[in-house]
Design brief:
The chain has about 220 residues and is an alpha/beta fold. It has helices spanning about 30-40, 95-115, 140-150, 160-175, 190-205, 210-220; strands spanning about 5-10, 20, 45-50, 60, 65, 70-75, 85-90, 120-125, 135-140, 155, 175-185.
């Protein structure tokens, strides 16, 4: 493999989808949140992104089947708005800045062709206390204020590393609205509590009902 490429399983018919990125990272908050959203929205995998910038190993599943490192795109039309979710199992090396830029640009190229005009990135932020808080950074003050009204805390004077931060910045350069939600975590293993907290706020951001509301309605039926 000399260049990165996207393998499409099918082309989803989407109506102005929101793009949500949740990759492995601090506390694994991004990946946990993405997987919760995929399950909640019944999203289906429709494309895979492969790159020579990914690590030189393969992943083995419970059945002994191997797959090279990749990112996976999922799409859902179950709710309004439609969503496109990106998750995966690896990253390019931290010191390969060119790789990070190329990959993020190609991801945005692909999702914009699907009609995306809002980008949401998810990650974790290290804290020693106040676990459960969700922080927000955005491409405009108005957008940040809107998310704060829904329960987030402004994330100021910091850095957001990797695709979670870079997609945010590159989306702004393209004139796309973009927000980043960061779950407070101590980073000790996969923090399901932090991931769940970000997921619940994400549902508010997307204008979707919480899983708790859905369960209550089903119980009444």
């Amino acid at each position: 493999m000399e260049t990165s490429y996207i393998h499409k399983r099918f082309h989803p018919k989407l109506d102005n989808p929101i793009f949500v990125e949740g990759l492995p990272g601090f506390g694994n908050v991004g990946k946990i949140t993405a997987e919760l959203l995929i399950s909640f929205s019944k999203a289906k995998p429709f494309a895979e992104y492969y790159s020579p910038f990914f690590p030189d190993y393969v992943n083995i599943d419970n059945n002994g089947i191997c797959t090279p490192p990749r990112y996976e795109f999922y799409a859902s039309t179950e709710h309004k708005p439609n969503v496109v979710v990106l998750t995966g199992d690896s990253h390019p090396p931290l010191n390969n800045v060119v790789a990070h830029y190329e990959i993020c640009e190609e991801i945005l190229d692909f999702t914009q062709k699907l009609g995306t005009n809002l980008v949401v990135t998810i990650g974790g932020v290290p804290v020693s206390s106040d676990k459960g808080d969700v922080y927000v950074a955005a491409t405009s003050r108005k957008l940040a204020a809107k998310i704060m009204d829904q329960g987030a805390i402004i994330y100021g004077k910091g850095r957001i590393m990797g695709a979670t931060g870079l997609l945010l910045g590159l989306a702004k350069e393209r004139g796309l609205d973009s927000i980043c939600l960061l779950g407070a975590t101590d980073g000790m293993g996969s923090d399901k509590e932090a991931g769940s907290g970000v997921f619940q706020l994400l549902l508010k951001v997307l204008g979707l009902k919480s899983s708790g509301d859905i369960h209550q309605k089903r119980g009444k039926g």
